[in-house]
Prior knowledge:
This protein has about 220 residues and is an all-alpha fold. The protein has one domain. Helix content is about 80%, strand content about 0%. The protein has helices at about 1-40, 45-55, 55-70, 75-110, 120-145, 150-165, 165-185, 190-195, 195-205, 205-215. Helix 1 (about 1-40) packs antiparallel against helix 3 and helix 1 packs across helix 4 (about 75-110). It is globular.
Amino acid sequence: MGTTRIQQFVRVSENTYRYASIAVALVLTTLPGLVGLLLLDRSLGNAPLYALFLLPFAPATSAGLFALGAPDDGDSTFRTFLRGYRMNLVQAAGIGVAALVVLTIIAIGVLGEGRVQLPAAYRVGLVVIAAGVVIWALLALVISSRFAFRTRDVARLAVYYTFRLPLVALGVLGVLVLAYGIATLTFTAVLAFAGPAILWLLQRCCDPLTRDVHRRFVRPGAGG
Length: 224
């Protein structure tokens, strides 16, 4: 009984350290964006700046997913996060830019004032498209953090699995709603500290996706 309790304590301590390391890494890598988001007024004219300050979250998300999914090779969690950050920086940033450009255009269309008023149904449609874009981006970041595919292949696979695995897409939407709720009810910085738990939920939601990608698109014996 004593040995079991010690093992449980060690496991809890390791998980706590891992969580804390990823949380600190997320805060450090998103700090410029966090500061900018806290200082910006919530006005339509700042939509492009919001997109700019949200961009650091894309590579940070990819690195966090990489650290959570990496096997225990004796390296520290913080170093594993940084390794994933360096490996996926360009690809994750490209995914983030593509998504944020579309989301900025949609935000201007939905929230625009003083111009031609859009019908309510059209605005609802734009909101649905925006949700789809965010789901696509998160699926793409999950894929890029686990597999060494070309960016265009990652983008295509993310579109494909958004429709092939609708329950996964709904799960990702639920994680997105949770993250939005945390950021809205508290403040954006809290989201970075809660990031490891949110990324863990995202990773669990996407387990069927990663298994299917590995089975169908990774050659036997190849790393993934």
